[in-house]
Amino acid sequence: MLTLFLLRHAKSSWEDASLEDFDRPLARRGEEAAPRIGAYMAAQGIEPQLILCSPATRARQTLDLVLPKLAGEASVEFEDNLYLASSSSLLARIRKVRANIQRLMLVGHDPGMHGLAVELAGHGKPEDLHRLATKFPTAGLAVISFRAAQWSEVKPKAGRLDSFTSPRRLS
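Structure (tokenized):
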């Protein structure tokens, strides 16, 4: 069984209008939310083996605040093509993940993350599926499992949405 953890970056700041989108940091709210979702992940026993992260500042900062909460030794790779990637690009990247990886986490951006989660989650609790279809909030986490032997076999609607939460729901 394969498990995919989709983590949207935490709330970013729009204070400095001179910054390029790529360079926007986390807002104070994001700096508080990321460790909270990280603590939730730790309490749930979430241990990704591989983390693929957008190199954008807000995604890196989110990961920096989440990673210390997680057990295990995840390998982290920052990939330029994950910055503002479409859901189809994200799915294509997932399908290339090595066969020895069973627990994969992506840290990225909307609308690609939201589109990917909706595209892959074919089963799960109706209330979670409905909330996911409606919105993928900042620092939101979708956990989707697949009855597949390797990532190249992952198909739309074949995943089970095991959980979907955000820091606001943890308050």
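DSSP finds six helices and seven strands in the chain. The first strand starts at residue 2 and ends at 8.
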